[in-house]
Amino acid sequence: MSTVEELQNNSAQSKDSHRPPFKYLITIEPLGLLYGSAGKFLSPENLVGRSGSYFPPSAATLSGLFAASYTDAEIHDLLLAGPFWGITDELKPTEQNFYVPTPRNYLVKDGKIKHKLTWKKYLDKQDKESYGWRDGDKEPPNDKFESNTWLAINQWDEAKEVKKAPWKFLPHLHPRLELDERRVVRQKDDQEAPQGSLFLENSVQMEPGTCLVYLSNIKLEPGWYRFGGEGHMVDVSCLDLAQNITTKINRTIENSFALITPAVWGSNRLSYREPFYLQKGDKQKYSKPDPESDERKVWSVAALLTERPIPFRYRLGNRENQQLQEQQHKSDNNKQNSQPPKLLSRGRYAVPAGTVYVLKEPINQPWQKWPDEWFPKEGPSLKRWGCSLALPLPSAIA
Fold first, then answer.
1. Fewest CB atoms within 10 A around its CB: which of 82, 189, 322, 365?
2. Domain annotation covers residue 306
3. What is the pTM (predicted TM-score) of this model?
4. Which value, to the nearest 10 degrees, does the dihedral of the CA atoms of residues 297, 301, 307, 311 take?
C-alpha cells in the first residue's frame, strides 16, 4: 500500500475511533550540529551560557516535517511519540532497541541501578500501618543519585544499568561584524545599532553512531531535512517498527506505570498532574478542581514520584495575535522590508518523563487506547504528539 493510500484510509476513519497505532520508527542523524534551545533567545545584554537549553527536540518539532509534506486532512490522525535516542547498529529491521527516560523510582549511581523503590504498606515507628516508597523493607537512602539517565527499552522489565545522553552542548557566538572592520558592530553617535551584534547559539553535538528516535503511525519519506532552530540539516530514515517494540508499547497498563514522554493534563489555562474531564463552558476550565471530591477526575492516584514540571510549547500563536503583530511591524520603518515574526502560544507545564504513577484502580488498557477526552485539546488533541506515553511498571508496587 502506498503512503497516499495509507493516509486516505487513516483519514476516512470515524472521528470517534482511535488513531491508527504506531507503525514506524523514525531516526534522525545530524549532519553536523543540532540546535539545543527552545523558547529563549539571548541578547547582547543577557549572554548566559546555558540559558534556555533544551534537547532533544520534542515530537512537536518532528510534526513540522509532516506538516510540510502532507495536507491537514492527510495527517488528521497523525500520532507521534518521543524524543528518544538510539545506537544505529541496534536498530535492526527484525529487532530494535532504543533508549527511554529512566523511571524515577530507580536510583542510579555510576551508571548502575543501586535501588528500586516500591510503593508498599509498612509499619511506622508507632507500629501503625502506613504506605510509602520503600527500598525493600527500609526507608529510601538519603544520598545523591544521578539524574537525566536513559534506559534501554529492551531492559524495561529487568533494568540493571542505564546510559547517559550521547550529546553535549557547544554554545558559540554568531557576531555581526562591521563591513569595513574586523570588529563587532557597535553603537554610533549614541544611536542603537539596527540589528543585534551578537547571538549565542546553543548547539548540540551528538556522538558518532547515535541518532534521535521517534515513533509514528504515518510514514515520513527518507531524506535530508532542516530540523529545529537555525536550519540545521539532518538525515531522516523511516523504518518499520519491529515486533518486539510493538509488543512492548501495546502491553496493558494496570495500576502502575512510568511516563517515557512528558505529559500535559488539564485545560488551556491550568496544568494538572493527572487528567480531568473538562467540557466547553465549564468553570472547571478556569479554576482548580478539588482533587478529593471532583467527579471529573479520570484516575484515583495513590502515589506519584516525579520532579518539578518542565516547560512545554508546541504551536504558534493564533491568527488574531499574528495580525496585531503585523500591524505593529508595518509601523516600524526600520523593519518595513523584513518578514514579521509570529507570536508563540502560551507556554504549558508538563509532568516530566520518567514520572511513576501508582493508581488505586487499574486502567486495564494500553496507552494507544486511552480516550482523546483524557488529553487537552488546543486545535488537535495533545495525544497527537505522544503526550504521556506510558509503559507498565509492575515492579513499582510491592
1. 189
2. yes
3. 0.83
4. -20
Q: How many CA atoms lie within 13 A of 152 on its CB side?
A: 17
| Among the listed residues 244, 262, 241, 266, the one whose alpha carbon sits nearest the alpha carbon of residue 308 | 262
Q: Residue 128: inside a domain, yes or no?
A: no
Q: Are residues 34 and 163 in the same domain?
A: yes
Q: Does one domain contain both 303 and 205?
A: no
> All 3 cell numbers of residue 386?
505522544
| Final residue belonging to a domain, choices 195, 215, 246 | 246
Residues 226 and 293 in one domain: no
Quickly list H helices, the chain. Answer: 3-11, 59-69, 243-249, 319-330
pLDDT digits 0-9 by tens, 249-277: 999 999 999 999 999 998 777 788 999 87
Which three cell numbers mark 2?
A: 502506498
The string of DSSP codes covering 52-93 is: TB--SPPHHHHHHHHHHHS-TTTTTT--EEEEEEEEGGGB-S
Strand partners, 48: none
Residues 224 and 296 grouped into a single domain = no
